[in-house]
Every structure is written in structure tokens, then in C-alpha cells.
Amino acid sequence: MVNPNGNLLFTTLIDLNGDGIRDALTYARNVAAPVHAFINNKTGAFVWDDTIFIGGAPIVDNPAAPLIADFNNDNLPDFLFPNAGYDGEPYPGAAKLLLFGTADHRLENVTVTHLNLQTAPVYASAVGDLDGDFRPDVFLAKGKFGTGTKQARYWLNRSSVLESYTPTFK
Ligand SMILES: [Ca+2]
Ligand SMILES: [Ca+2]
Ligand SMILES: [Ca+2]
Fold first, then answer.
1. How far apart are CA 82 and CA 153, in angstroms?
2. Which secondary-structure segment (H or E) carries 112?
3. What CA–CA distance (Å, rounded) separates 23 from 50?
4. CA-CA distance, 27 to 129, in Å (whole number)?
5. How far is the CA of 167 from the centre of ligand 3 (A)?
6. CA gap 116, 80 in Å, rounded
């Protein structure tokens, strides 16, 4: 699939409009570009519809696949895009993007209010409960690239706000 900017896209299939049929969420790699939504009309057509994004299609910057979990415990899927940023020296990283699903099947950008902003480059990410409270948490890591350093961080889910911590490895 190619996006309107001509970049190769990566796609996550998930039901976005609540009809039980998976739709497509697409995003480019190695470039800062908008996420796009394509609604599956069940006859083989995926119809471009960015109106599901409250406030317009958000920009992602060289993300890995989004982590999908219910971070705010409302039984609606939420999306964390682990943006890696520019993939070269000095590996500046990029802020991550957090979208919460809404009851009317739209996606709301809650990055500023629900995520400690982190600009470190990320090349591996995972979601799971790290502290036993049954709320999904997030782990991020990168290896050593160029003159950069190895880094790892995790976010613990505190009442739907993801708070950043630095792990230690012993
Ligand atoms: Ca659908
Ligand atoms: Ca949710
Ligand atoms: Ca947890």
C-alpha cells in the first residue's frame, strides 16, 4: 500500500469503526508523516477516512508498529506509536504518540496529557503489565548506534497516565 505522499506504508489491521471487521491503520517508516485510516467496506475496498482522528491525522516519525492496549480501562483499544525519529547520526529520537479510542469510534490524541514525553530513539517496544495492577505498561529499548548509547525506559500506567522510569539491569 502506498500513501498519498508516495511512501511505502506499514499497516496495522484493527476494527476502527466498531462494525467488527478489521480496518487498516497505515504509517510510513523513515519519514515524519501522518497516520492514515482506511475503513474496510467488506467488499474488498478500504476507504480512506481520516475523520476518525479528532483534530486531524496525527504525525508519526519513523515509528515501529503501534502498541495496542486499553490504557485507560474503558474497553476501547488505544494506540501508542513508538516513534524512533531520524534514523541516523545523531539519532535524535522523537516524541511518542498516544491515541485513545473514544466511544464514538474515533481516536483522540492524548499524548500531552497522558504520556511523559520521551524523545529517546526506540527500536524495540512491548506492552504488558509490569507491576501487577492489571493495567498495561510499556517497555522501550534501543541498542547502541553510532555514537549513541544503549537506552531503555518503561512507562507504568498510573490511572491512565503513562509515567516514565529508567530500568536497571543487574
Ligand atoms: Ca471496521
Ligand atoms: Ca481505551
Ligand atoms: Ca501495570
1. 12
2. helix 111-114
3. 12
4. 26
5. 15
6. 12
Residues in the chain: 170
Q: Are 70 and 78 in contact (CB under 8 A)?
A: yes
| pTM across the whole model | 0.90
- Over residues 52-109, the pLDDT tens digits come to 999 999 999 998 889 999 999 999 999 999 998 888 888 878 889 999 999 999 999 9
Q: Among all ligands shown, which has an atom nearest to the Cα of 20?
A: 1
Q: How far is ligand 2, taken at its centre, from the CA of residue 113, in Å?
A: 14
Integer Cα distance of 39 and 25 in angstroms: 9
Q: Collapsing DSSP states into helix, strand and coil, what is residue 126? A: strand
